[in-house]
Amino acid sequence: MKKILIANRGEIALRVMRACKEMGIKTVAVYSEADANALHTRYADEAVCIGPPPSNQSYLLGHKIIEVAKLTGADGIHPGYGFLSENAEFSRMVKQAGIIFIGPSAESMETMGSKIGAKQAVRNFGVPLVPGIDEAITDVNEAKKIASSIGYPVLIKASAGGGGKGMRVVNAEHEFEEQIKMAQNEAKSSFGDDAVFIEKYVAAPRHIEFQIMADNHGNVVHLFERECSIQRRHQKLVEEAPSSVLTPQMREEMGKAAVNAAKACNYSGAGTIEFLLDEKLNFYFLEMNTRLQVEHPVTEMITGIDLVKEQINVARGHKLSFTQEDLKITGHSIELRICAEDPANNFLPDIGKLTTYKIPQGYGVRVDDAYEQGMEIPIQYDPMIAKLIVYAATREEAMEKMIQAVDDYHISGIETTLSFGKFVMRHEAFRSGNFDTKFIDTYFKPEMLNEPLDEDEELVAALAAEAFWSKETAVSATTNSNKSFSAWRLNRRQ
Question: Does residue 226 share a domain with residue 196?
Fold first, then answer.
């Protein structure tokens, strides 16, 4: 591939473009009228407007994107994440146009795009599943019997769902019919498919996911786990790698299950296997994301692997550049999603102009963003404006570094999740590793955002900071003498 079209916008478009330029590959940006002045539009070698601001009139027009690829001579398309990244028909159209799709096959997407289909596929490869059924409910009375045998509470889930849509918790049999109708209606409205299934409700799970990479020569590896349990509305806000709760044995078992899940759909490229971890540390397959994840930087930081470059090389037909035995975890990384949302007002999206925008810098601090001071936050797209990623030798040091980085990140003109990120880093449940997906419901109240530290917390923070800075010089010296230590951990990448 000599020229790649990036079928996306914002920070992920820039992230892919930078990797391409380092590989000597030309880049093509597509943009909506709202993004005429966007950084990804200006950074690319070529840029083509594909329509008005609404995504269904621009970034979701697969046929138009393919036309632009042909017009500009692009021989590859990278979908980023969101938009068309998990659209099997788009993947198929790209291939039929004689262009390389930098991602899995349409068939793999179709298998894993259906939660029912995914459960059926991985079951045959011995991957643990939450107790329940792996087929669509057609008979409500029969479904009631199954729910009773599983034991309440149960979870009704849309097969084609995501983001918590088409999902209902049923606590007792008398609620079942009403909740299933609501789930089906929401699923039909959101995804055009009212197929739902049921499984045992895991009340307070942890959300652990494994990054996998596979090539077209039968090689599949995992690049360890990410802890993604800090969420609002079933969407992640804080991610870290590795998880503070996994033992080496659990990591090996879950990693093997992740590899088997990828093999179950003949996967190729970068993907993520998501698991639920219950209070007894039993793990269950949740779903597969057949694309690069927003939180991929924390995996890059602890492994030294550039996942975007690896994606491109796999799409070129190359074998993976590493084996499972080559991979090891070095240090700890945490990511905070900087969203244009007001955490003091139920995380409602905010829009406006970035009156002030100054990013933190320094050793082990990385910012993936797509904005400059003075730019407007468009209302038409996802409210995430940046990702703040830190890397350090230990989890404790990474938390302290994140607190400092949040303090050094100056944004005015809009509300953001920066203050919430600092709240998480300071909270005892997060610091101890004793938390789950109910963290916000259990611990967070808006008035806590501006609470001062008490004396005990100040002492702990001071001691942690002293330990952190005393080790920083030693870590830096060791790092600079280790030739295998990736520059990804040392340098800020936008």
Answer: no
| Backbone region of residue 192 per phi and psi (left: phi > 0; alpha: psi in -120 to 50; beta: other values) | left
Token pair 């409700």 is found at 201
Is 291 annotated as catalytic? yes
Can you say whether residue 321 is alpha, beta or left, with left for phi > 0 and alpha for psi between -120 and 50 degrees? alpha
- Residue 326 DSSP code: G
Dihedral over alpha carbons 461, 465, 468, 473 (to 10 degrees): 180
Query: Of the listed 9, 226, 291, 431, which one is catalytic?
Result: 291
Alpha helices in 201-283 (DSSP H): 248-263
CB 420 within 8 A of CB 343: yes
pLDDT at 483: 33
Per-residue pLDDT of 445-471, as tens digits, reads: 998 887 665 555 545 544 544 544 444
Examine residue 396 and state whether it is found in any structural domain, yes or no: yes
Same domain, 232 and 179: no
The alpha carbon of residue 454 and the mean position of all alpha carbons in its chain are separated, in whole angstroms, by 34
Q: Is 268 exposed, middle or buried (0-12, 13-18, 19+ CB in 10 A)?
A: buried
- Are residues 441 and 292 located together in one domain of the fold? yes
Which pTM value belongs to this model?
Answer: 0.87
Q: What pLDDT, in 10s, does the model give residues 290-304?
A: 999 999 999 999 999
Residue 120 within a domain: no
CB atoms within 10 A of CB 182: 14
241 lies in the same domain as 163:
no
Q: Which residues pair with 277 in a beta bridge?
A: 206, 283
With beta carbons less than 8 A apart as the criterion, state whether 194 and 136 touch.
no
Q: For residues 246 and 365, what is the distance between their CA atoms, to the nearest angstrom? A: 25
Structural domain span for residue 167 = 131-200
The token duo for 407 is 């303090």
Q: In this structure, what token pair is assigned to residue 309? A: 């470059």
Distance, in Å, from the CA atom of 222 to the CA atom of 214, rounded to the nearest integer, reads 9
If asked whether residues 456 and 424 sit together in one domain, one would say yes
Q: How far is CA 359 from CA 41, 109, 326, 351, 438, in A?
A: 21, 36, 34, 19, 30
